[in-house]
Amino acid sequence: MSRLVASELFKQRTTRTFYGVVGGALGLVLLIVVLASATGTWHAGDTPMRDLLGIAGFAQVFALVLGILVVTSEFRHGTITPSLLVVPDRVRLMLAKLGAGLATGLVLGLMSVGLTAAIGAAILNSRGIDTGLDGSQVTKMIIGTTLATALYAALGVGVGALVRNQVGAVVGTLVYLFVLENLLQIVKAFRDPLAKYGFAGLGQGLTGTGDTSVDHPPLGQVSAGLVLAGYCAILLVAGIAVMRRRDITA
Question: What is the pTM of this model?
Fold first, then answer.
């Protein structure tokens, strides 16, 4: 299995899209962090480092896209047939893609949140602004953000297995995350469930960047992580079931 995971990681590294998505994620996060920490205004009792670390959450969306591409690129470019000739067991192939997605998500998440913490703290200190968090709190948020990014990549693998059309999978997922969840929050009855069990709310809960003082706070880090992992498992099981029954014509 380790060789299969290594093979999937190699496939990712040989595409320009991979470097474009990773570079775009890190570039966007760091640009916003630098601007926010250099120009932001905070008052006594605020937690500027929490706000800055929340920006690193943008990498989760990019990890989700990378997870989708891990599967759908095979269908789009017609490489799924030779892949299955090498690895006829579709379950093993999907698990290898899952392993590659998780590894990529972990690295991307750690890089984004680590650089955010280092650069944000440096700029805040140069301006004489207290970060508002102690070392243990920052560490928990770094771990949570790293895990959240990895789980979002796993979600992408599951979505890609279910919806093999690359454009449809990416666009549909982004529309749900950025449009439908926000629209559903207009309905008062949906606000608390979405804050706790929606993808955005779970991301805030696991990373520890959510505001617990609001009317509809997110779940705690452990609870949010378990629910998000459960979503990943459901999508992956469903995706693998579809892959096993699907006729491969690419």
Answer: 0.90
